[in-house]
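Troubleshooting log. The previous structure file for this entry was overwritten by mistake, so regenerating from the original sequence record. Sequence copied from the archived sheet and checked twice against the printout by T.R.
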Amino acid sequence: MPYHLLHGSPDGAVRHTLRIAAIGATTWLVLRIAYALSDPPLERLMHIEGERNRRARRARTQMLLLRRIAAVVITIVAVGAALFTFPSVRAIGAGVLASAGVAGLVVGIAARPTLGNLLAGLQLAFSDALRLDDIVVTQGTWGRVEELTLSYVVLRLWDDRRMIFPVSHFTEQPFENWTRHSSRLLGSVELHVDWTVPVEELRTELYSALRDNPLWDRREWVLQVVETLPNGLLKLRALMSAADSASTWDLRCDVREHLVVFIRENYPEALPRFRVGAEPVADGTGLSPAGGAGPSPDGSAAAADGAGPSADGAAAAPAPRTEGGASSGVNAPEDPDGAPDDSGGRTDPRGDGPAPRTPLRRA
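Regenerated output below.
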């Protein structure tokens, strides 16, 4: 091999290669040792339940972030050490150090979103605002925090889909954390029923159903009539507690199904229904369900179809119909005297003879 064509001696090139390989091997060994030392504690923290679960999840979140930060720092130092083994890179590095202030300003402006996410990740982890396995609701999306890094947060949704948010989203936008202090939750079931529903019997049945359900934690329960709806129904709300969000959802579904079956089988008259009837007026009279007119203020009943007693006691004949079939309104016959009558356009004949014929007016 023509070693004379190489710059410098071949021994120097081999030593340089070995130096870079030693830096890489040392970096890999340090990272493996760090991961080997941190994996057992993280594994133990995953299996802690009960009241200590919240503190365990906080410690696990912070340990994972610190391990990631340490790995990034070690990798950057190793890459820098490998590059500085080249004389030309050392010369460039000296110039960069001389202008470190301007270079840092430029890099900071260019990487502002990335740096913002990094700081937001540290803020979330060490302020205890968000932890692994927390149940959160953001932008109408329910999910469990599956992964929390310095740049993004992964939420596992109820149907096993994953939604990824930047870390800055949780520092700039409001969100609900259902497990901030405890994993226990209150669930609610709302029912719209008729006024005839027996509330006490329904309350007794609710307690019996909860007592036999293993998802109920025996902490809270109540059944209340919370509102009367404009459509004539009552709104009942049943509250119950469970150990976590998954148990709360299943318990709500079980209780809703049980109460629906109980009302349908035992009190079918309490099922939602709408009533249609006469509307009372101020003087106690009103329209009948068939649409006829009620009694007049002087005690006499008004005629519904145009037939009624006349002034001299004779029965009035129905008004003649037009070709279109209408007996009132624009197609009704006019009063012979030119004055409108009180029956909405119909003319009542006077005397015992038939009503005089009058010309019909069409619209």
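Residues 337 and 347 are 10 Å apart (CA to CA). Archived copy saved in two places this time.
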